[in-house]
Amino acid sequence: MDKAYKNHEFLMSEDARSLRILAEYMEPQQRFRRLGVQRAIIFFGSARTQGGNTVGPEHVDYYEAARRLAGQVANWTMSTHAHDQRYHICTGGGPGIMEAANRGAYEVCPELSMGFNISLPFEQGLNRYVDPRLAFSFHYFFMRKFWFMNLARGLVIFPGGFGTMDELFEVLTLVQTGKSEQMPIVLYGKKFWDKLINFRVFAEHELISEEDLQRFLLTDSLDESMAYLEAHLE
């Protein structure tokens, strides 16, 4: 007879869901502690944005922009912070913008490149620029989001689809309500964001305050993005 904790059929059952959720909390926590991971800059964006391809009528290569900005962050933290105080560059671990940011970090220092992958029916699989020691695979979206926000000290959000929008508004909600600490949030691709969301309408209808519009930076500039992150992180 197998002990309960060795019974695979039970562990995969509905009744054991709470154990699986707990495992996705405890295993990453143990690994972060062992590897000295304390904080990260999170990069969000579309899995469909490929290198060398321009996007939208503005013909912007967002993949290259994400790679370069992540590299700048990695260079900055390498030269500014002690080893145990460095910011890791963390993504969802998949293709597109996620790959670009991991690549930018990997090209500077592989051990700063972290990925929180999730099992999906498509766009699944870890990109090759994530340090294997910092590669995580989640089943539950909410546990993945928990770890993103637990480590996040700054966020850079590139154009993306439903998943990116979900992440953007959850972050803004957590920061606005004080459930997460204040942190710099960069929305890269000003023309895209201005066309997609008229943030000022929220304030005009008194659904948010004016100060909520100051919680993020809209920009098309890598230099402005980096300067904003540096100023608010330190």
Verbal overview:
- The protein is α/β, with parallel strands linked by helices and 234 residues long.
- It folds into two domains: 1-35, no CATH class; 38-233, Rossmann fold.
- 45% of the residues lie in helices and 14% in strands.
- The protein is built from nine helices and seven strands.
- It has helices spanning 8-11, 17-35, 62-80, 97-108, 141-151, 162-176, 190-196, 199-204, 222-233; strands spanning 40-44, 88-91, 113-118, 135-138, 152-157, 185-188, 217-219.
- The chain has a seven-stranded parallel sheet with strand order 4-3-2-1-5-6-7, with helices on both faces.
- Strand 2 (88-91), helix 4 (97-108) and strand 3 (113-118) form a beta-alpha-beta unit.
- The longest helix is centred in the first third of the chain and has 19 residues, at 17-35.
- It starts with 7 loop residues before the first helix and ends with a helix.
Helices and strands in order, then pairings?
Elements: H1 8-11, H2 17-35, E1 40-44, H3 62-80, E2 88-91, H4 97-108, E3 113-118, E4 135-138, H5 141-151, E5 152-157, H6 162-176, E6 185-188, H7 190-196, H8 199-204, E7 217-219, H9 222-233
Parallel strand pairs: 1-2, 1-5, 2-3, 3-4, 5-6, 6-7
Helix pairs in contact: 3-4, 3-9
